[in-house]
Amino acid sequence: MIDESLLNSLSSDEKELFKKGLQDLIDQTYVIEDEYKKLGDSYSALQNVIHQIIEVQPNALWVLEENGEIFLQNSEANSISSILSLFSTQEGNQEVEFEGRFFLLKSVKKGDKKIITATDITEGKRQERLVSMGQVAAHLSHEIRNPIGSVALLASTLFKKVDPSVRPLVLEIKKSIWRVERIIKATLLFTKSLQINPTSFFLDKFIPECQKAIEHYSYSKEISFHFNLPHIEMKGDFELLNLVLQNFIFNAIDAIEEGDKEYGNVYIEYQESMHGICLHVKDDGKAIENKNILFEPFKTTKTKGHGLGLALSLQIIQAHCGKIDLLENEKGFEIKIGKCSD
Question: Are 220 and 258 in a shared domain?
């Protein structure tokens, strides 16, 4: 507050100087206030840019205070914030498993802040596991192939020489050997680079081949097989596509075997399509339990499956520029074979 007696004691010139100084001080206050607002706006804009930068990061990112409190994080980090409890206090890289996924955690200290990132490496770990399992499976398949071939030859010789009453048992042995040989073939195909050899043939050529394969497959229930494959020309690798159809037929047989009914039906049908060959393989057996792992290698929900049939089938169909889908209204699969195999 200005002393009034002091103000009255000033001369006119002094009063003018005082007034001018006071006005300059007020003007300067407005300038400082304006600069402060601009500085605040710049800081807010900078914060917004920083938030946008960390938000577009593909991995989870946290910035922590010295006491461990979260100073900044993106939405990806917020969705898995509980993973921080698995992170040790040491700096460096760590691999942790969290909610069925694998993450690589990295930490670095900047000033009084600690920056932590978490990268989902589940797919990479899965690929490593598949490569390792594939290598083991391929090695075992190579080791088994020769003795199985010898056993198959001996079983064929035995079938011709034994008493007719014993032949059904030998026949079951031959069927089991055929199944092992088929697994070996599928494993070796899956673990090496798949190359197709397209030729022209008629669609109904699959029928006798599939019927012959069914005769080698063991099952206990009464199952009827319905083939609706017209005499139309198509192009593709016949041997590989034949393997695909047989895989789906055998899956259908297994589903009927595991179902409640003592009989069942398997349908192999051609569907009209303008984009290549479309086939449906359907059955009335047990419903599919876990659709998410259908094409996952080395995983199966069946008691008889080895987990490679559908994975290999998908590889073969994709190599023919096609795709495999579950049917929506019926139990079965739709197999589409494209036209890029020229």
Answer: yes
